[in-house]
TrEMBL record:
Domain NADP-dependent oxidoreductase: 49-352
Molecular function, one GO term: voltage-gated potassium channel activity
Protein name per Swiss-Prot or TrEMBL: Voltage-gated potassium channel subunit beta-2
Any one biological process term the GO annotation gives: regulation of action potential
Assigned protein family: Belongs to the shaker potassium channel beta subunit family.
Record's keyword terms, sorted: Cell membrane, Cell projection, Cytoplasm, Cytoskeleton, Ion transport, Membrane, NADP, Oxidoreductase, Potassium, Potassium transport, Synapse, Synaptosome, Transport
Annotated region (Disordered), positions in chain: 1-28
Domain of life per record: Eukaryota
């Protein structure tokens, strides 16, 4: 696992915190250091909770609600907002398309925000849609299948490791041109990330600082086993998404798929099938047991699930999704649950889940 930082380190969420991690002062949030973590081993400080825009923004909610969510998130200490050029079919999905006019009473300074975006087919269009001069982190979303591989590029059996020199050079160019401050990977394997780092060091280019990965109670292997090794070796951190497993862990699907839920949306038949499968029914049974733990802790099941993700010291930021202000405030409340996650509670959760991954070190010991 990741190293246990000093308890006085500002990069760590304080487990001794009793009040809210943010309090208003003169209409602006007071940013306490315990609410922020470094993105990997970079110098970029991000709120441990970020607001994502996948599915909800430009899909389930109106621009008015999107603006309300972003304002509420910022007022409650969240400084990281994540998007991608292909969300909402490439439309301007963020409510702050123009930061200088739409939310100027809230977002006093661009430097107070951490805006991240993903690219796969292109790049500059994201800045134009956001009406920004730069983003803080640009993610290369999935390895480009057209980049050459070791040996014969048409013989994929020779090596599964992408040598992504073109990608690393492109990201370095984006940063050198002032369009981004850092770059990271999204849905890359640990081997591919390590290869990108090696290429960067070999050719004096800029390596990635973060991997954006799915992480929740039913998806653990990558973040808990693979990424810690990269953190130790090359300082790559983890920004995780879908802490509620696309809403599965919210508890809303315990009696099937309700109308207007994500699983009922067009294009999400895969999620509906997953929920109604035999594995989905087993997961719902486990969630009922976890609900009992949440009730003992005085929180909701989603709050328990998000706090469970935050308890991982290697996770720099957990991206939240919300379609209402009530849901967002509930999710932010997970911060108050984190200090309650004792080792005995974590052990109880692991026993119910039955899917704790083991690293090579665990097997040797």
């Amino acid at each position: 696992m990741y190293p246990e930082p000093n308890t006085d380190s500002p990069a760590r969420l304080s487990t001794r915190q009793t009040g809210s991690p943010y309090t208003a002062r003169n209409g602006s949030p007071k940013r306490q250091l315990q609410f922020y973590r470094n993105l990997g081993k970079s110098g970029l400080r991000v709120s441990c909770l970020g607001l994502g825009t996948w599915v909800t923004f430009g899909g389930q909610i109106t621009e008015e609600i999107a603006e309300q969510l972003m304002t509420l998130a910022y007022e409650n200490g969240i400084n990281l907002f994540d998007t991608a050029e292909v969300y909402a079919a490439g439309k301007p999905v963020l409510a702050f398309v123009s930061l200088s006019t739409t939310l100027s009473p809230v977002f006093h300074r661009r430097s107070s925000l951490v805006i991240t975006t993903k690219i796969y087919w292109g790049g500059k269009a994201s800045l134009e849609r956001l009406q920004l001069e730069y983003v803080d982190v640009v993610f290369a979303n999935r390895p480009d299948p057209n980049t050459p591989m070791e040996g014969d590029p048409f013989n994929t059996s020779k090596s599964r490791t992408f040598i992504i020199e073109e990608t690393v050079r492109a990201m370095t160019h984006v940063i050198n041109q002032g369009m981004a401050m850092y770059w990271g990977t999204s849905r890359w394997s640990s081997m591919e990330i390590m290869e990108a780092y090696s290429v960067a060091r070999q050719f004096n280019l800029i390596p990635p600082v973060c991997e954006q990965a799915e992480y929740h109670m039913f998806q653990r292997e990558k973040v808990e086993v693979q990424l810690p090794e990269l953190f130790h070796k090359i300082g790559v951190g983890a920004m995780t998404w879908s802490p509620l497993a696309c809403g599965i862990i919210s508890g809303k699907y315990d009696s099937g798929v309700p109308p207007f839920s994500r699983a009922s949306l067009k294009g999400y038949q895969w999620l509906k099938d997953k929920i109604l499968s035999e594995e989905g029914r087993r997961q719902q049974a486990k969630l009922k047991e976890l609900q009992a733990i949440a009730e003992r802790l005085g929180c909701t099941l989603p709050q328990l699930a998000i706090a469970w993700c935050l308890r991982n010291e290697g996770v720099s930021c957990v991206l939240l999704g919300a379609s209402s202000t009530e849901q967002l405030m509930e999710n932010i409340g997970a911060i108050q649950v984190l200090p309650k996650l004792s080792s005995s509670i974590i052990h109880e959760v692991d026993s119910i889940l039955g899917n704790k991954p083991y690293s090579k070190k665990d097997y040797r010991s």
